Amino acid sequence: MVSIDPLMGFGNSRSRGEFAGARMPMRWHDDAIVFETADWRSQETEIEWTAEHHLVVLTNCGSTVMTQVRAAGELAFEGRDMPGALSFVPATIDRKCFYKAADLSYSALWIRPDLIDDWHLPPPPDKLTVNGQDPVIQATVGALRDEIRRDDVPDISYVEQVVRMIVHRLCRLDRQPASGGGRLSRRMLSRIDDYIRSNIGRQISLSELSAVTGLPLDSFARRFKATTGQTPYAWILELRVRHLAERLRDKNADLCMLAAELGFSSQSHMTNTFRRLRGMTPAHYRRQNLPAF
Questions:
Q1: Whole-model pTM above 0.90?
Q2: In this structure, how many other beta carbons lie within 10 angstroms of the beta carbon of residue 224?
């Protein structure tokens, strides 16, 4: 089993039911730039960590049921990791993270601060950002990840350009408007989750979900996207895929029956959705995760 301990820095971690896929980090400029992408599952994980590098983490796909992050003893975030979630941890920040029911793929980019100084780049923010959104960083990290997944060794000039772009975009995180009344409360989001889980085997309409919150339809859709970074339909699909991943660990569960049970329109719809969100077919996922006897 591969540990999910961060590549750079020091600290300690405790996990239950953890699995991490093969981690093959790539390093440039004597570890001034380090990049990795990996799959990770865990029932519960707690990490206390600090590093001399800045850290950019992107959730490629998958989610957690709950993520809690503290910095300097203060609660910085409590919610869920979802696809596209971006976190930035400045160098030397002490952080304590708790993850519940994680099943996701992530990419992590470590950048040593002296490299930013040497390149005369603007300094990134000195405060922690957890589960923000930046489409440019998401696309840039995704392009580097895809390059490496093709077993290509990226040219150093390309990697340097990626890092320069990301550092410039990190400076914009400080200027993002503060969240306010345009978001759903945790209680509202929890009620929506409960409703979806209770009705996951059938088609769920947007009007049903808005009724759960008591908000007008257009206001609900807008506030849901502002809160989660996803449309309600994408959120429902993610929950269905999460349930499917759990059920696939039962070798006797029939795929066609699972598709109907979890509200997919067909087995092919289930297969295509799972492949898009988890990077493999349900059958492949099952082969990887069936317990060995």
A1: no
A2: 24
Residue 49 CB neighbour total at 10 angstroms:
19
Amino acid code (one letter) for 74 = E
Provide the b/e sequence for 97-119 (b: ≥16 CB within 10 Å).
Answer: bbbbbbbbbbbbbbbbbebbeee
Percentage of the chain modeled with pLDDT above 90: 44
**Predicted confidence (pLDDT) per residue in 161-174, tens digit:** 999 999 999 988 76
Residues forming a β-bridge with 102: 42
Statement: residue 291 has pLDDT above 80 = no
pLDDT value, residue 177: 46
Backbone angle region of 44, left / alpha / beta, with phi > 0 → left and psi within -120 to 50 → alpha: beta
Task: Please check whether residue 265 is in contact with residue 273, taking contact to mean a CB–CB distance below 8 angstroms.
Answer: no
Give the integer Cα–Cα distance in Å for 266 and 263. 9
- H-helix or E-strand containing 188? helix 186-198
Which are the contacts of 287, defined by CB distance < 8 A and separation ≥ 6? Answer: none
* AA letter at 112: R
- pLDDT score, position 131: 83
- For residue 224, give the nearest of 195, 198, 263, 185 by alpha carbon: 185
CA separation for the pair 77, 80 (Å, rounded): 9
> Can you tell me the distance from the alpha carbon of 113 to that of 132, in angstroms, rounded to the nearest whole number?
21
Q: Does residue 31 come out as left (phi exceeding 0), alpha (psi in the -120 to 50 range) or beta?
A: left
CB neighbour class for 255 (10 Å; exposed up to 12, middle 13-18, buried from 19): middle
